[in-house]
Amino acid sequence: MSEALAQFAGDWHALLVLLLAGFLPNEIWRMVGVWFGAGVDEGSELLVWVRAVATAILAGVIAQILIQPPGALAGVPDWLRYAAVAGGCMVFLATKRSIFAGVVSGELLMLAGTWWLG
Questions:
Q1: Domain shared by 98 and 113, yes or no
Q2: CB 117, CB 109: distance < 8 Å
Q3: Where are the extended beta strands (E) located within the chain?
Q4: Mean pLDDT value across the chain
Q5: DSSP-derived 3-state class of residue 31
Q6: 85 and 110: one domain?
Q7: Same domain, yes or no, for 18 and 33?
């Protein structure tokens, strides 16, 4: 292995373990899900319920992060976190439900507010 590749990749044993224990097992289940899910009706009651449960779990995680922020986010004032979420929601609704636009605008609001506060 060349010196540049060794510096970039580090210990190749760790990368091999990461590939075998982390990536491949997850990728196998993804492919099985794609294969089985190809013929499933997206409007079925089961998938509507699954989507509702997933949305509720995501809302719970976001609420927990807002109320009890972990790590560096704990140093950001509460009002700024709430304003970033509200701004992201407004942009989400204004852009015909674009998740990407809502997330990016919320992040930009958070970063701008943090920069402005110093």
A1: yes
A2: no
A3: none
A4: 88
A5: helix
A6: yes
A7: yes
User: pLDDT value at position 34?
Assistant: 87
**Position 9 pLDDT exceeds 70:** no
**Percent of the chain topping pLDDT 90:** 56
Interatomic CA distance for residues 81 and 112, integer angstroms: 12
Q: Are residues 45 and 35 in the same domain?
A: no
Query: Does the model's pTM come out above 0.70?
Result: no
Residue 95 gets which letter from DSSP?
T
Residue range 105-113: mean pLDDT, rounded: 95
Residues whose CB is less than 8 angstroms from the CB of residue 84 and which lie 6 or more positions away in sequence, other chains included: 106, 107, 109, 110, 113
**How many structural domains does the chain have?**
3
Task: Let me know whether 58 and 34 are in one domain.
Answer: no
Which residues fall within 8 angstroms of residue 87, CB to CB, at 6 or more apart? 105, 106, 109
For residue 115, report the phi and psi dihedrals to the nearest 5 degrees: -65, -45
State the residue range of the domain holding 14. 1-39
Residue 9 sits in the same domain as residue 31 = yes
Residue, of 4 and 19, whose pLDDT is higher:
19
